[in-house]
Amino acid sequence: MRILRVVTFLVLFTLVTGHENLNSHMFPRPLIIEYPEPHHHQLKDEVQLQCTSWRFAVETNNLGPWKTIPEECGNYVRQYIEGGAYKMDIDRVSDEAGAYAKSRDLGADGKDVWVFDVDETLLSNLPYYSDHGHGLEVFDSVEFEKWVEKGMAPAIGSSLKLYQDVLSLGFKVFLLTGRGERHRGITVENLMNAGFRDWHKLILRGSDDHGKTATTFKSERRNEMVEEGFRILGNSGDQWSDLLGSSASNRSFKLPNPMYYIP
Amino acid sequence: MRILRVVTFLVLFTLVTGHENLNSHMFPRPLIIEYPEPHHHQLKDEVQLQCTSWRFAVETNNLGPWKTIPEECGNYVRQYIEGGAYKMDIDRVSDEAGAYAKSRDLGADGKDVWVFDVDETLLSNLPYYSDHGHGLEVFDSVEFEKWVEKGMAPAIGSSLKLYQDVLSLGFKVFLLTGRGERHRGITVENLMNAGFRDWHKLILRGSDDHGKTATTFKSERRNEMVEEGFRILGNSGDQWSDLLGSSASNRSFKLPNPMYYIP
Predict the structure, then answer these.
(1) Any signal peptide, and if so, which residues (chains A, B) (predicted)?
(2) Looking at beta carbons, which residues of chain A come within 8 Å of B97?
């Protein structure tokens, strides 16, 4: 606020004391756009602090199930997503995962596995969520499935790079998604168009999986992989329900997602 | 940066065009203290963003083992700890844990357990770490053990409240710490002086546990609890090695710790 007062003072002072010398086209205008940005405001700072703390609680899985983001964090989440911090976090996850993947010596039997979730891990639904308040609105499965059926979700850039890297290293890639079997066709098409190829298996929720939590569904599928002799060395997902449970991966990589929660 | 340029421009402009009208005692001085604060500086903003991203990677367990915090994040971590955000995060964890604890119906057999880690979970070593760069220095076990033997680590306020709450609710409390048996005496004394009472068992690292990771050591001890018929409903710790592994708790609560990493 002090800087604002100084600018205002200097402007007035200049006008009062030096207006006869002013050459109007030299005056920096419009001054209004030079005001400190809203997030420097004290109240905004408090919201910023609270919402960062909330986001930590989300990302560390300290919160119980939640249906929408806190209303006061709407702008915060949008700013996080659109302002570059989300991308920075995602890129870092892929970098760490890639370094770990390279550090592993794989067996000659082709049984070393990397598991990827799909939504908000390989494919981004930001075009959908930016139209729906980035999590401010209660999840509407009918609306979301219309979006899924368009098959237009773009790849998350650094995830695509990681995907290609682990394939090159010799990992078998399993895609394990909470999407239902009825979306298999469009999901394959979307993934292929976004640049994802050569997965070993794409596992979607079948009719038997109805009513199971994602943690249970995904644990059961990982159990099957382990029973078939696969070794799960890496697992990338934006939900803790992608990563926790039985037959957990040797290393898990949690992508950020402050927009929704899947138990 | 633009605001700085505008101020500079206005100052120069005022000096150049209006100096004959200037009454020097009216000039706002010293102008240097009115500059935007360091954290509004673009470079600082970038460091802030990078270090927040690093902290997320730490708290979500995405990083491999690390020995010191990134040098460029030294001020960031100090500011996080001392500026109130750390306390806000800790308080939120305890609130969430407390709400979960109250939501559980406990059995009549007294077998429902809450596990607490000690350092940076119940007791705070901030007096030590603030003297050692908040993680900028490589961990020095000799120095740290001298501090431990003083028995002067204060309680973390909201953890003490959670501790008392879960006891009142009827949980059995197990303290499971990486501290060695040789520190048992002073650890008990420190805990008691800080207000912690009535734990069911305090488990420290014995001579057999030498060389084990914390994840292994703590998993083994939790396995024993489960074998004895205890149900681990809650677990609070500042390290993922407190929380992951076998016989994991029904719900785990990750306290923040951007200062050090224990595998």
Answers:
(1) 1-18
(2) 62
Residue B5, class by beta-carbon neighbours within 10 Å (0-12 exposed, 13-18 middle, 19+ buried)?
A: exposed
User: Where do the H-state alpha helices sit in chain A?
Assistant: 2-18, 42-59, 74-82, 85-103, 126-129, 141-150, 157-169, 184-193, 214-227, 240-243
- Assess whether pLDDT exceeds 70 at residue A88: yes
The lowest-confidence range among A16-25, B65-74, B77-86, B173-182 is A16-25
Mutation target for A interface from B10, B59, B62, B88: give the one with most A CBs within 10 A.
B62
- pLDDT, tens digit, 9 for 90 and up, residues B178-234: 999 999 999 999 999 999 999 999 999 999 999 999 999 999 999 999 999 999 999
Q: Which helix (H) or strand (E) holds B137?
A: none
The pLDDT value recorded for residue A45 is: 87
Q: What is the DSSP letter of A208?
A: G
Separation between Cα atoms, residue B258 and residue B88, nearest integer Å: 14
CATH no., domain B45-52+61-254:
3.40.50.1000
Q: Kindly give, in sequence order, each residue whose CB lies less than 8 Å from that of residue A221, ignoring residues fewer than 6 positions away.
A: A176, A203
B34 backbone dihedrals φ, ψ, rounded to 5°: -90, 0
Q: Which one-letter amino acid corresponds to residue B245?
A: G
Q: In Å, how far are A171, B48, B159 from B38, measured between CA atoms?
A: 46, 11, 34
| Class of residue A63 by CB neighbours under 10 A (exposed 0-12, middle 13-18, buried 19+) | middle
Q: Smallest Cα–Cα separation from B192: which of B152, B149, B144?
A: B152
Nearest CA in chain B to A10: B10
Give yes or no for a contact between B72 and B51, defined as CB atoms under 8 angstroms apart: yes
Distances (CA, A) of A217 to A24, A144, A220, A228, A252: 69, 21, 5, 17, 17
Q: What is the mean pLDDT of residues A188-212?
A: 97
* Residue pairs between chains A and B whose CB atoms are closer than 8 Å: 123
Angle at the Cα of B198 from the Cα atoms of B192 and B201, rounded to 5 degrees = 100
- Judged by DSSP in three states, A244 sits in coil
Q: In sequence order, what are the residues at sequence separation of 6 or more whose Cβ sits closer than 8 angstroms to the Cβ of residue B188?
A: B202
CA B98: distance to chain centroid? Answer: 18
Neighboring chain B residues of A253 at a CB cutoff of 8 Å = 62
Q: What is the ipTM of this complex?
A: 0.82
Average pLDDT, stretch B18-39?
40
B-facing residues of A in 57-86 (CB < 8 A) are 57, 59-64, 84-85
3-class DSSP state for residue B21? helix
| A171/chain B closest Cα distance in angstroms | 19
Contact (CB<8Å) B99/A254: no
Q: Quick one: average pLDDT of B129-134?
A: 96
Q: Is A263 on the interface with B (CB under 8 A)?
A: no
| pLDDT tens profile A91-113 | 999 999 999 999 999 999 999 99
